[in-house]
Design goal:
Keywords: ATP-binding, Coiled coil, Metal-binding, Nucleotide-binding. There is one protein chain. With 361 residues, the protein is of the alpha/beta class. The chain has three domains: 2-43 and 63-109 and 193-275, P-loop containing nucleotide triphosphate hydrolases (Rossmann fold), CATH 3.40.50; 123-187, DNA polymerase, domain 1 (Orthogonal Bundle), CATH 1.10.150.300; 296-359, Roll (Ubiquitin-like (UB roll)), CATH 3.10.20.30. Helices cover 43% and strands 20% of the residues. Helix 2 (46-55) packs parallel to helix 14 and helix 14 crosses helix 15. It is flat and about 65 Å long. The protein starts with a strand and ends with a strand.
Length: 361
Amino acid sequence: MKTGIIGLPQVGKTSLFRILTRAHLSAPAFANPREAHIGVAKVPDDRLDRLAALYNPKKLTHTSVEYVDVGAIGQDALKETAYLGHLRQVDALAHVVRVFEDAAIPHVGVIDPLRDIRNVEFDLMVSDLGQIEKRLERLEKDLKKMKTAELEKEFELLNRANAHLGGEKPLRELEMTAEDKKRIRGFMFLSEKPILYVLNIGESVELGRELEEAASKYKLTDIAARPNGAATAICGKVEAELSEMSDADAAEFLSSYGLKESGLTRLIRTTYGLLGLISFFTAGEDECRAWQIPAHTRAQVAAGAIHSDLEKHFIRAETIRWDQLLEAGSEANARAKGTLRLEGKDYIVQDGDVLHIRHSG
């Protein structure tokens, strides 16, 4: 699952990409502003860390999110085939919005995050409208030659999408059935992708409070509450400093700002949720590991995330909540207390479940 990092020039998005993915890219690597850079960020998960403290495993494996830095966005960039191609391939968007003041870094006009969000959203919608108008023209010709139920359904859906965009509303807010979404999946519309607004704020002595209140302060609450949207805040300058510190020093540094975790941790976790992902765990002395699956996944399918043979030969899943396992202190104690239970193939795996798959293979 990929998340594209987008934004206007000079908002700090490439710096964010470097910090997120710990990518040590030289200046020549960024010589082409339209070139996409791909990196992977580990998903921090205190639940997994606490399970590891119980088992003391030989190996600890977190899940990850892939991020793609695609260069500054704008109508000119969205006309370029290569740029559009990179952006269409991502599953969600992280739109970095500048809030920080810095005279050394130029910005067109006054700092206005809501204006910048609307401008970028408009560009995404214009790109989608161009696609839809071309396809509708083609469909009209095809329907004159031969009417089919599938072509008529596509024509109706695209006309509805066209009207929705005409009302300056992104496609992520358009009500669609699973069949509708499948029908337009191939278009990879930009304004249909889930979006996370990332406010890049300035450093302050009350950074903890500033980060918590940023969305409401800059009037993003309503936008972030719309379907398939979310908002979070970071301080790029502080995150850059944290990325160079040891864990102990970073914890002390965060504490000095009244923070328990970094903005990046919240950003990654919010991205994960926006992508519709959850984590379940396997735990033992050899390895404690988080596994990434879509929400509402059945146990048998979840077993396939570990190994295809486990899905094929699935019998039952021994299941317990991560906190119940920690409370019990061991699987044996949990079994004795009755909190370790057996679930069948149709059990819907919950975020934070610890699973042991019984199989016949």
